[in-house]
Specification:
- Belongs to the PRA-PH family.
- It catalyses: 1-(5-phospho-beta-D-ribosyl)-ATP + H2O = 1-(5-phospho-beta-D-ribosyl)-5'-AMP + diphosphate + H(+).
- InterPro entries: HisE, PRib-ATP_PPHydrolase-like.
- It is an enzyme of class 3 (hydrolase).
- Helix content is about 80%, strand content about 0%.
- The chain is built from six helices and no strands.
- It has helices at about 1-20, 25-30, 35-55, 60-80, 85-95, 100-110.
- Helix 3 packs antiparallel against helix 4 (about 60-80).
- The protein is globular, with a radius of gyration of 17 Å.
- The protein binds phosphoribosyl ATP.
- Phosphoribosyl ATP binds next to helix 1, helix 2 and helix 4.
Length: about 110
């Protein structure tokens, strides 16, 4: 899992630097700009939600897996566009690892 995300990030950075919009989907997203990338993230998030509801009602498991993959991919393009590294997200999750979400929320409420 970690390896494919790292490998994909390398490709995404290459496409951002030297990809041609006519031959690379990732380069075409960067070329169209942040608003287009955010539109795709929103669209894929909605499709993932709909696929989750469908699966809960007896729908197709592969549909949800594919939609979440689309969402992760477009989120990675968004991060790349803004020069935010995947390692920053990993570090954030690592910092939270083992800390209950309920405990973290309670600590936030302290004056
Ligand atoms: N993982 C992906 C990936 N996942 C999804 N997609 C593309 O995301 C696009 C958007 O999906 P949609 O379902 O919204 O399709 P659509 O309705 O045609 O999209 P729009 O017309 O609305 O833009 C599709 O064209 C998918 O092919 C991806 N395109 C590329 N990658 C990876 O990125 C690498 C670089 O891709 P290129 O830049 O195209 O070479 C590839 O080698 C892959 O590893």
């Amino acid at each position: 899992m970690h390896d494919i995300l790292q490998s994909l990030q390398v490709i995404l950075e290459q496409r951002k630097r030297e990809g041609e919009p006519d031959s690379s989907y990732v380069a075409s997203l960067h070329h169209q700009g942040l608003n287009k990338i955010l539109e795709k993230v929103g669209e894929e998030a909605t499709e993932a939600i709909l696929a989750a509801k469908d699966l809960d009602n007896g729908g197709n498991r592969e549909d949800l897996v594919g939609e979440v993959a689309d969402l992760w991919f477009h989120s990675m393009v968004m991060l790349s566009h803004l020069d935010v590294g995947l390692d920053e997200i990993g570090d954030c999750l690592a910092d939270r690892f083992g800390l209950s979400g309920l405990d973290e929320k309670a600590a936030r409420k302290q004056p």
